[in-house]
Amino acid sequence: ALKIEMLLVGSGETQLVQKPMRSPRRPQVSWTPELQYDLLECYMQADPTRRSYMNRLKALWHQEHPDLHFMTCQNLRDQVSFLKRKYKNSSETWNPLVALVAELDQHQQWERSAPPAEPNKFSLAK
After folding, report:
1. Residue 19 domain-assigned?
2. Which helix H or strand E contains 101, and what residues bound it?
3. Dihedral sign for Cα atoms in the order 68, 78, 60, 57
4. From which domain of life does this come (predicted)?
5. In Å, what is the CA distance from 85 to each residue of 23, 36, 81, 91?
6. What element of type H or E holds 8?
7. Total number of domains in the chain
8. Could you list the residue range(s) of the whole structural domain that residue 93 is in?
9. pLDDT, tens digit only, all 126 positions of the chain
10. What is the pTM of this model?
11. Distance, CA of 122 to CA of 108 (rounded, Å)
């Protein structure tokens, strides 16, 4: 996109000059408690223990909030990480975000402590 500016030349004439526009800034998101809760719900549904969860997180988020289409999967992951740190040791028991983060933490601890899966008995290697 080009930006057209009018410049005043020394003889009193105006001259039109085309300049490339700067890329527009991404709008700043005001993270309401409802948006935070929705993001953590999408994160849980995306199953972060599996590969490519950030793409699933972005797809779920865009289904839930199509008006926030400019958010990248990295933006969303960073916000989840911030929320997990913020509410991990919180004493606000009335806050549903605290309960959701505690549930996420408990689920991740369970995933880490689960025994490794047995190797496939039907492998082709001999």
Report:
1. no
2. helix 96-113
3. positive
4. Eukaryota
5. 32, 13, 6, 13
6. strand 2-8
7. 1
8. 33-113
9. 555 555 555 565 665 656 665 666 777 888 888 999 999 999 999 988 889 999 999 999 999 999 988 899 999 999 999 998 888 877 776 678 888 888 877 766 655 565 655 655 555 555
10. 0.62
11. 30
